[in-house]
Specification:
The structure holds two protein chains of two kinds. By secondary structure, chain A is α/β, with parallel strands linked by helices. Chain A has 14 helices and eight strands. Classes of the chains: A alpha/beta, B alpha+beta.
Chain lengths: 271, 90
C-alpha cells in the first residue's frame, strides 16, 4: 500500500527540500518505488537539488489542469531508477493548485508508487496546507533553534486539524527530523539539545542530521547526499531515518563531537 | 568576540528552552478556539444593519480581558436622520 508523506516545517530554510531529496533517494536505494512532489509553486527547487532542472518539461499544475498526463510530467532519476520527481511549476498562478486537483493526482500516484513524498513550501498558506492535506504521515523538519521549534509546533497543530485524516477522526503519523544539529554547540549549551526539542514538541524522533559540509556539497552538485557520499555522517543519518520510516527499529545515534587534535586541545577553552 | 564573551560560562540554550515552553503553552491554549471577536463582530453588525444603516468601517469592536471580568466595547457611528429612514422602511 502506498504511503503519502509530507515533509513540512513552517519555517523556511530548515532543510525540507534537502531532506525530501535525501529521504526519497534513501528509500529508492532500498528498492522502494518513490515519487517526490514539489509543492512550492513559483519557487520550485527540488528539481535543482536532484539535478533534474534541465529535464523539466511538464509540472504538477500541468497535470492538474489536464495539459499533460501524469506519465509525461514524471521525471525518472538517472542514478536511482526507482526514484521519480513531479516538479512544481515555476511561473504559473498558484491558484491553479486546487484541493480536488491535488487529490486526483495523489490518488493516481497511489496506484503506481510505494512512497509519495510531498515537499511542502514554507509557511502555512495554500501550498503548505495542500501538501499536507492527503498525508498519511508527516516528517516535521526542525532545527534546534527557537523560531524553527515554534513553527514546528504550529505545523503539528495543523496536521492534527486540517488534514483529511484529522477530519475523518484519524491521526496523521508524525515524525520529527532534527537537522543542522551541531553536537559541540549543544554540548556547550549554545544550542538546544535533542532532549530539549523532543520535550517541547513531544513528537517521536525519526532522525538527527548533523550539520555537515557534505549537505551543501550535495546540493551544489545536484545529488541527494545519500548518493553523493553515502558513507558521510548526514547520509548515514538519512539512511537510518528512511529505515525507521519503513517501520524498522534502528538504534538512534546522537551525533557526537568529532574533534581533531587541535580542537581537542584548544577548541573548548572558552566553554 | 569580546573578552567578556570568552570568559562567560554556560550557554543560552536553557533560556531558549524556557522561553519556548512558556510561549508554546500559551499558543497551544488559544490555537483551536474559534475567532470569538470575529464571530461577535459579524453577528452584531448583521443585527444592527437590519434596522439602522451605517458604514462598516465606522465600527469599532474591542474586547478587553480583565482579571475577573472582561468588557466588550462596541462603537458604531450612525449618520444622523436614520430615524426617518427607518420610519419610511416600516
Amino acid at each position: 500500500m502506498a504511503h503519502v508523506v509530507v515533509v513540512t516545517s513552517g519555517k523556511g530554510g530548515v532543510g525540507k527540500t534537502t531532506s525530501t531529496a535525501a529521504m526519497g533517494a534513501a528509500l529508492a536505494q532500498h528498492g522502494e518505488k518513490v515519487v517526490v512532489i514539489d509543492f512550492d509553486v513559483g519557487l520550485r527547487n527540488l528539481d535543482l537539488v536532484l539535478g533534474a532542472e534541465r529535464r523539466v518539461v511538464f509540472d504538477l499544475i500541468n497535470v492538474i489542469t489536464g495539459v499533460a498526463k501524469l506519465s509525461q510530467a514524471l521525471i525518472r532519476d538517472k542514478r536511482v531508477e526507482n526514484l521519480h520527481l513531479l516538479p512544481a511549476s515555476q511561473t504559473r498562478d498558484k491558484d491553479a493548485l486546487t484541493d480536488e486537483g491535488v487529490a486526483k493526482v495523489i490518488d493516481e500516484l497511489r496506484g503506481k508508487f510505494d512512497w509519495i513524498i510531498c515537499d511542502s513550501p514554507a509557511g502555512i498558506e495554500r501550498g503548505a496546507t495542500l501538501a499536507m492535506r492527503h498525508a498519511d504521515a508527516a516528517i516535521i523538519v526542525t532545527n534546534p533553534e527557537v523560531s524553527s521549534v515554534r513553527d514546528s509546533d504550529r505545523i503539528i497543530g495543523l496536521l492534527d486539524s486540517k488534514t483529511v485524516k484529522a477530519e475523518n477522526g484519524e491521526r496523521v503519523e508524525k515524525h520529527l527530523l532534527i537537522t543542522r544539529y551541531h553536537p559541540s554547540r549543544a554540548a556547550r549549551g549554545e544550542m538546544m539539545t535533542i532532549e530539549d526539542v523532543l520535550e517541547i514538541l513531544s513528537t517521536p524522533l525519526l532522525g538527527i542530521i548533523p550539520e555537515s559540509e557534505e549537505v551543501l556539497r550535495a546540493s551544489n552538485i545536484g545529488s541527494p547526499v545519500t548518493l553523493s557520499n553515502a558513507l558521510s555522517a548526514p547520509a548515514r543519518a538519512y539512511f537510518d531515518a528512511a529505515r525507521r520510516l519503513r517501520g524498522e527499529v534502528v538504534p538512534m545515534i546522537v551525533p557526537s563531537e568529532n574533534k581533531g587534535i587541535f580542537n581537542k586541545l584548544f577548541g573548548r577553552k572558552a566553554a | 568576540m569580546t573578552l567578556f564573551n570568552i570568559f562567560r560560562r554556560g550557554g543560552s540554550a536553557p533560556i531558549a528552552r524556557e522561553r519556548l515552553q512558556i510561549l508554546l503553552a500559551h499558543e497551544r491554549g488559544t490555537r483551536n478556539q474559534p475567532d470569538l471577536l470575529g464571530i461577535l463582530r459579524e453577528e452584531i453588525l448583521a443585527v444592527i444593519s437590519r434596522h439602522v444603516p451605517f458604514e462598516p468601517d465606522k465600527v469599532q469592536i474591542k474586547l478587553d480581558r480583565g482579571k475577573s471580568v472582561s468588557t466588550l466595547e462596541v462603537d458604531i457611528e450612525i449618520p444622523n436622520g436614520f430615524g426617518a429612514a427607518l420610519a419610511k422602511a416600516s
